[in-house]
Amino acid sequence: xxxxxxxxxxxxxxxxxxxxxxxxxxxxxxxxxxxxxxxxxxxxxxxxxxxxxxxxxxxxxxxxxxxxxxxxxxxxxxxxxxxxxxxxxxxxxxxxxxxxxxxxxxxxxxxxxxxxxxxxxxxxxxxxxxxxxxxxxxxxxxxxxxxxxxxxxxxxxxxxxxxxxxxxxxxxxxxxxxxxxxxxxxxxxxxxxxxxxxxxxxxxxxxxxxxxxxxxxxxxxxxxxxxxxxxxxxxxxxxxxxxxxxxxxxxxxxxxxxxxxxxxxxxxxxxxxxxxxxxxxxxxxxxxxxxxxxxxxxxxxxxxxxxxxxxxxxxxxxxxxxxxxxxxxxxxxxxxxxxxxxxxxxxxxxxxxxxxxxxxxxxxxxxxxxxxxxxxxxxxxxxxxxxxxxxxxxxxxxxxxxxxxxxxxxxxxxxxxxxxxxxxxxxxxxxxxxxxxxxxxxxxxxxxxxxxxxxxxxxxxxxxxxxxxxxxxxxxxxxxxxxxxxxxxxxxxxxxxxxxxxxxxxxxxxxxxxxxxxxxxxxxxxxxxxxxxxxxxxxxxxxxxxxxxxxxxxxxxxxxxxxxxxxxxxxxxxxxxxxxxxxxxxxxxxxxxxxxxxxxxxxxxxxxxxxxxxxxxxxxxxxxxxxxxxxxxxxxxxxxxxxxxxxxxxxxxxxxxxxxxxxxxxxxxxxxxxxxxxxxxxxxxxxxxxxxxxxxxxxxxxxxxxxxxxxxxxxxxxxxxxxxxxxxxxxxxxxxxxxxxxxxxxxxxxxxxxxxxxxxxxxxxxxxxxxxxxxxxxxxxxxxxxxxxxxxxxxxxxxxxxxxxxxxxxxxxxxxxxxxxxxxxxxxxxxxxxxxxxxxxxxxxxxxxxxxxxxxxxxxxxxxxxxxxxxxxxxxxxxxxxxxxxxxxxxxxxxxxx
Amino acid sequence: xxxxxxxxxxxxxxxxxxxxxxxxxxxxxxxxxxxxxxxxxxxxxxxxxxxxxxxxxxxxxxxxxxxxxxxxxxxxxxxxxxxxxxxxxxxxxxxxxxxxxxxxxxxxxxxxxxxxxx
Lengths: 898, 118
What we know:
The structure holds two protein chains of two kinds.
Chain A: H1 2-16, H2 18-42, H3 47-58, H4 61-72, H5 75-93, H6 95-124, E1 135-145, E2 151-156, H7 161-167, E3 173-182, E4 198-201, H8 205-208, E5 216-217, H9 222-225, E6 233-237, H10 238-244, E7 255-258, E8 261-269, E9 283-286, H11 297-302, E10 307-312, H12 318-329, E11 339-346, H13 357-392, H14 394-402, H15 407-440, H16 449-452, H17 460-486, H18 490-495, H19 502-541, E12 548-555, H20 562-577, E13 582-588, E14 598-602, E15 608-616, H21 619-623, E16 628-631, H22 636-641, E17 656-661, H23 662-668, E18 678-683, E19 686-696, E20 709-713, E21 719-727, H24 731-741, E22 750-755, H25 756-765, H26 768-799, H27 801-809, H28 814-851, H29 861-887, H30 891-896
Parallel strand pairs in A: 4-9, 6-8, 15-20, 17-19
Antiparallel strand pairs in A: 1-2, 1-10, 1-11, 3-4, 3-10, 5-8, 6-9, 7-8, 12-21, 12-22, 13-21, 14-15, 14-18, 16-19, 17-20, 18-19
Chain B: H1 13-25, E1 28-29, H2 30-41, H3 52-61, E2 65-71, E3 77-83, H4 85-114
Antiparallel strand pairs in B: 1-3, 2-3
Helix pairs in contact in B: 1-2, 1-3, 1-4
């Protein structure tokens, strides 16, 4: 220990007092030499001989000094410092080279770090709370029993109040909060203003979010939150308090009106109450407020309307909590033996959301790979830059080697330089990493932006990632050129006849191929996403989506049996048809592209065919403009029969009338009259018998949906329903009228209304961000590759000036020389395309798993055609300039030089 | 003139020699140490005398010897080295190690001598 300390002190002194220690040692050696020489003289040698003998015996002075310096100091660190100084000197001599290399690498690393920062903040960050990682987001999953005795997941569900109370007993929980949202308008009769966001929350919400108390006033009491408690109290969230109430401090204790309900303001909540799990709120009321919206005891017991988040006790884990919750959930299984529940527990980050996770698990690795490709392209550009400089400095390297520089040392020096390039670029890319993500954030819907992408900050994860990318880039860019530099023929290099040896030229064209291949993969990826968006829009256009309003309605099975549903649906239809501008209204179970009902049907001969089953009413055909070709549509009596009484099933009540699309009629019953023929739909719950009563025109082809559509009378299926309204005139007026209708019916029955256009845009919203990011990345990649392609040919032309000059002098035409160079330059590009294609296809196939549901398969000739054309075009463009220059070489000058 | 065969120095041996020399002779300059080692070994080892300085730096940095500038016998300014307490301890333990190693080696060589005998 003492030894180590003493050593450290000495090493430090060696670092600081370098010059003094050098001088002292010189003096010490001088003294030694003198004494040694004196001894030799004493033995009878002459003065000069004695001095020479002494020198011999002492050893070569300079090397002794070197050894001494190494021994006392940091030989490795010092030689690295020397390499760094050497590199910096070279950059000063050739600043354009350094600038170009650093900028290129910084673009590559910057693309990586900015996408990483974005994903890290938006996707991987959990709900902060107090930042202690104890936040737990609950995702109750519905499980259904399928015939073979297994449970299958059937999507997200909510919690009932009873379940919430049971779950509160989980030992790992410090607190549990449930919430629901209500969207009333603020004040009375002011329908013009946007609806506000009111959260109905349970007592634990404050603690779950890691807040101690409201900004002002008080939090709810437990009694207020319990069903039956005094629920006419409200807290206002800070931003709403500032905008709507101009931060009036006297708001506390006053009352405010929310769509006919009077509430007393008891507090102001800080802005941090808005969070990832619950989203934004304007007002917060106790969960017991639902009784003012019509909930009774049965509602609290049965309705699954609550979402839940919790806060773990210190030391408890999410896995523990999940086990406890699922044990508690078993007590509810007795109520309905065919359904059960699995509660997932996550940290609330986007990637962990159950319905997003499978998609993200495809997309995120692909995105990561895309970023890696961009970096690879940037690296190969710099590698090619370093190589051309190595060719220019060939002479210098040869001289140093012949003077005895160790190859290893020289190699280290070259690698040090490229690492230095990488690190400079890394530092620069941190600037990008914090500037670009806010631009990317545009793809997040405005309201969620402050919550999902609050601020992009420098953190350890980002720094580590950048450092790793920078080092990797430095090594990848520098390794090959450094190795190539070592392999040189000293003799011909020194003589000055060696031009760039062929091995190196081949290596550089390899780099071009790699760049082209990487760009191809990236372009195919972004192209696929863009083509998907295009095709979704194209399909939507055929339905004149600008005049078709889609309203979602949820007939919850707890509250609606078939008869009541039919009754309410009838009322809805009547009310909507009466609205101004409405031409037709249809209630349907599915929409083209929205809820695909892919099933199989058995034909009379026993053939099984894939069909698209759609449960709807006769108005559907009018709304979508599908004329009847043969037979008839459903009658009112048939629609009435489809309203099942309790105990009845669709299977037991057949046969049902079926209307089929024209292609189905042609395909299933070629040359025959389809009317009156039997079709059996193979429903998961059992075969449904149907008899064809009519044939309608087909919609245009809808990707990923069978053209063989089988329409059955509507209420055979329930719960989620679409109300389609074909209208003329201003969509916003109709939207507002539909909005007003909501308060006339049960809360939660009617959801938002959108034009069909918006429905498709909505479908695309998950794709848009990805497509945007990937398109930007691949644009950058192509740009970098173009620079690389240009650079390599330009350098080749400059290296072959003499040869080309001779050709021209011997009578070759300028065009021929240009064509020769163009061919030289194009060869690695074509090789790259060829090599990149299989990779690209693999990637497109992976990505197509994601775009498939939007109707974009992996084999799209337009995609491949356009991408290949684009790449060839940009490669040709970047080759043009150096090729033309090759034709314009002045033979006389070319021959005179060198 | 045939070059007399010289011993290769084992790693760390020189350090030990320097320490022992300083312990035996007290304060000494680099030349003195080198000469002393030459004398003792009867020219069987050495070495450019200069190599001794690497050893001196190593020992001083670890605090086992100390140095100061002084005057040599013929009034020349020279750097003098002396062993420190830590150096004595180090030397003692190294000597012990050396003895053990040497014992083991001796036994091993003895073993080899016996083996060929019937």
